[in-house]
Amino acid sequence: MIGLSLAMTTPAFDPRKTRISDASLCRSRLMAALLGLISSLRR
Protein backbone atom coordinates (compact mmCIF):
# COMPACT_ATOMS: atom_id res chain seq x y z
CA MET A 1 0.00 0.00 0.00
CA ILE A 2 2.97 2.31 0.58
CA GLY A 3 3.96 2.07 -3.08
CA LEU A 4 0.41 2.90 -4.14
CA SER A 5 0.25 6.06 -2.03
CA LEU A 6 3.73 7.01 -3.26
CA ALA A 7 2.60 6.53 -6.87
CA MET A 8 -0.38 8.81 -6.21
CA THR A 9 1.64 11.65 -4.67
CA THR A 10 4.80 11.60 -6.81
CA PRO A 11 3.28 12.54 -10.25
CA ALA A 12 2.38 15.96 -8.85
CA PHE A 13 6.08 16.66 -8.35
CA ASP A 14 7.68 15.10 -11.45
CA PRO A 15 5.52 13.03 -13.85
CA ARG A 16 8.46 12.27 -16.13
CA LYS A 17 10.54 10.75 -13.33
CA THR A 18 7.57 8.66 -12.18
CA ARG A 19 7.02 7.28 -15.66
CA ILE A 20 10.69 6.28 -15.93
CA SER A 21 10.74 4.64 -12.49
CA ASP A 22 7.46 2.88 -13.26
CA ALA A 23 8.89 1.46 -16.48
CA SER A 24 12.08 0.33 -14.76
CA LEU A 25 10.04 -1.26 -11.96
CA CYS A 26 7.93 -3.13 -14.52
CA ARG A 27 11.06 -4.27 -16.34
CA SER A 28 12.73 -5.49 -13.14
CA ARG A 29 9.56 -7.39 -12.18
CA LEU A 30 9.49 -9.00 -15.62
CA MET A 31 13.16 -10.00 -15.32
CA ALA A 32 12.52 -11.45 -11.85
CA ALA A 33 9.58 -13.45 -13.19
CA LEU A 34 11.69 -14.74 -16.08
CA LEU A 35 14.54 -15.73 -13.76
CA GLY A 36 12.09 -17.53 -11.49
CA LEU A 37 10.61 -19.40 -14.43
CA ILE A 38 14.04 -20.42 -15.73
CA SER A 39 15.20 -21.60 -12.30
CA SER A 40 12.01 -23.62 -11.82
CA LEU A 41 12.45 -25.25 -15.24
CA ARG A 42 16.04 -26.27 -14.46
CA ARG A 43 15.03 -28.33 -11.40
TrEMBL record:
It comes from the Bacteria. This is Uncharacterized protein.
